[in-house]
Amino acid sequence: MQILVNGDSVEVASGLSLLALLERIGKPSAHVAVEYNGDILERDGFAAVTLRENDRLEIVHFVGGG
Amino acid sequence: MKAPVDLVIAGQIFTSRLFVGTGKFASPEVMAKAVEASGTELVTVALRRVDVHAPDDRTLSALDFSRYRLLPNTSGARDADEAVRIAKLSRAACKTNWVKLEVTPDPNYLLPDPVETLRAAEQLVKLGFVVLPYINADPVVAKRLAEVGCATVMPLAAPIGSNRGLQTRDQLRIIIEQATVPVVVDAGLGMPSHAAEALELGADAVLVNTAIAIAHDPVRMALAFKAAVQAAELARQAGAGDQSAYARASSPLTGFLGVEA
C-alpha cells in the first residue's frame, strides 16, 4: 500500500506498524517526532499505530541550528 | 564591587551568559568540542524533516544532550501557525517546553515578523511553553512580548549570520532600559568584542552561532567568546567610572620640569 512520508509517496506492506517503519528508515526512537494525519503523536504511542493506505506522516528530528 | 547576579530564565539559573547555536559547523565533533569550550549551559537546535532516503543526519551526534539546556528553534516558520506547529513537534521530540520562537518570512535578511511572532507567542504561552522570541531590536515589540508572558526577549544585533556586530545599539539600549524579562542579544555578533559590548550595554546574555562555527578554529573562537563574556561580567561587577567630554589627566598636574614656581 502507499503512504505519504514527508511529502514522498512510499510503498509499504499493509499492517506495518509506525515503529516498524521508523526502524526500517533507521530512525527508531530518540529525538524523533511524528505527525500522523495531522496529529502529533507522543513517542510512547508509536507502537500502537498500525499504518493504513494513504496515511500522511511527517517524521522530524533535530539538526544543528542557531 | 557589585555582587554577582544570577541569570534566571523561567526559574533556571545560568552561570554562563553565553548561549551557543549548533548550526554550520564543519563536523559534529568540532561542534561538540566548541560547545564544550564555550562553557555554555544552553544550546539551540533546529527541527527538520528526516530524509527518508538518507536518515542519518549526524550534525548533533557528538553532542551530549544531557549536559545542556536544549532550546529548539522554530526556524523555517513563515507565520504564527507554522511556528506553533514546529514548537509542538519539538516538544514531542525532546520533552522540553522551551522554544526559541523565530518567524522569518523574509529570505534575504531573515528579519523576524513582529506581528506573527506576537501571535505565535500568545498561543505558545497559553499552551505552556517557555517562549524566547527572536525579534528585531524594537522596544515596543519587546515590551508587548514580555506582557504576553515570554520568558525573555532576543533582539538582533545585526541580521543572522552577518557577523556585523551591534548595528542596533541605540534600540538595544532602550530595550534593556525598559526590560522586565532577561534580554538575550542574538544574531549578528561576529567578534568576541561584540558580545562583550552587548553585555556592557546591560544585556543579560548573548547567543552566538555563526561567528564560532565558521571560524578557522571554532574551538579557539568559542574560548575567545567565553573570555569576552566573562570579561564583561567582571567589568559589570567592578562598576565602570563615568565618561567625560574632556580630558581628565591621569598624571599629577604639578611639579613639571622647567616650570618657574
List the helices and strands and how they pair.
The complex is a heterodimer of chains A (66) and B (261).
Chain A (H helix, E strand, L loop, with lengths): L1 E4 L2 E4 L6 H7 L7 E5 L2 E3 L14 E9 L2
Parallel strand pairs in A: 1-5
Antiparallel strand pairs in A: 1-2, 3-4, 3-5
Chain B lengths: L6 E3 L2 E3 L3 E4 L6 H11 L3 E8 L19 E5 L6 H15 L3 E4 L12 H13 L3 E6 L3 H9 L6 E2 L13 H10 L5 E3 L5 H10 L3 E4 L1 H4 L4 H21 L23
Parallel strand pairs in B: 3-4, 3-10, 4-5, 6-7, 7-8, 9-10
Antiparallel strand pairs in B: 1-2
Helix pairs in contact in B: 1-8, 2-3, 4-5, 6-8
Condensed summary:
Chain A has one domain: Beta-grasp domain (Ubiquitin-like (UB roll), Roll), CATH 3.10.20.
Molecular structure report:
The complex is a heterodimer of chains A (66) and B (261). The mean pLDDT of chain A is 88. Chain A has 1 helix and 5 strands, in the order ββαβββ. By secondary structure, chain A is mostly beta strands. Chain A has one domain (2-61): Beta-grasp domain (Ubiquitin-like (UB roll)), CATH 3.10.20.30. In chain A, strands 2-1-5-3-4 form a 5-stranded mixed sheet, with no helix packed on it. With 261 residues, chain B is of the alpha/beta class. Chain B has one domain: Aldolase class I (TIM Barrel, Alpha-Beta Barrel), CATH 3.20.20.70. Helices cover 36% and strands 16% of the residues of chain B. Chain B is built from 8 helices and 10 strands. Chain B has helices at 28-38, 80-94, 114-126, 139-147, 169-178, 192-201, 210-213, 218-238, and strands at residues 7-9, 12-14, 18-21, 42-49, 69-73, 98-101, 130-135, 154-155, 184-186, 205-208. In chain B, the strands form 3 sheets. Chain B has a 5-stranded parallel sheet. The model of chain B has no long low-confidence stretch (mean pLDDT 94). At the A-B interface, strand 3 and strand 5 of A face strand 4, strand 5 and helix 2 of B. Strand 5 of chain A pairs antiparallel with strand 4 (42-49) of chain B.
